[in-house]
Amino acid sequence: MLRIIDTETCGLQGGVVEVASVDIVNGKIVNPMSDLVRPDRPISHQAMAIHKITEEMVADKPWIEDIIPRYYGSPYYAAHNASFDQRMLPELPDSEWICTVKLARRLWPGIKYSNMGLYKSLKLEVETPANLHHHRALFDCYITAALLLRIMEESGWTPDQMVTITGRPALVATMAFGKYRGKPIAEIAQDDPGYLRWMLNNIKELAPDLRMTLKHYLQS
Asked: Does residue 14 sit in helix, strand or coil?
């Protein structure tokens, strides 16, 4: 069994407002679970504009510590940009993690690696929840599960091989947030290296791959 998990948060620094998962069993997407969560901090306006989860929606919901045991029980957890979700969910027991971003970069170099970008470019077929939208946790779980099934179909990788690939450092091609969102990091390093240095020195929660990428281009 593989459990695909996703979180929505108050912002890049954390504060879970929603967690969801689906399982892959015998090549099928099954066992959807989803919970809104009362966060430990205010929801930023930027985050609220993306996932549309408001303070009122989560004001009376349980804390993450009360919800997360429902998501225990899988030997493998998979997520799109797994390092972020793993960092948001330290309450999960130790298991192996699989990152569909890293797998996609390895399997299909030179394309866009956002969840919806891969969904469209690969023409993934999956039935998503009718009452939800992109950037709601359960909706994104279905997209990531369909992506992972396609990756396994085309690559033949076993879960343990995917764990190994996930654990290897990998250069990030484009900036995923901020004023240069969508721009190749190699170009940012040429045009505005000071911005990359500022990120390294001031954003403590940078994903390890992004931190390595910024150092790589600044030292080139």
From this structure: coil
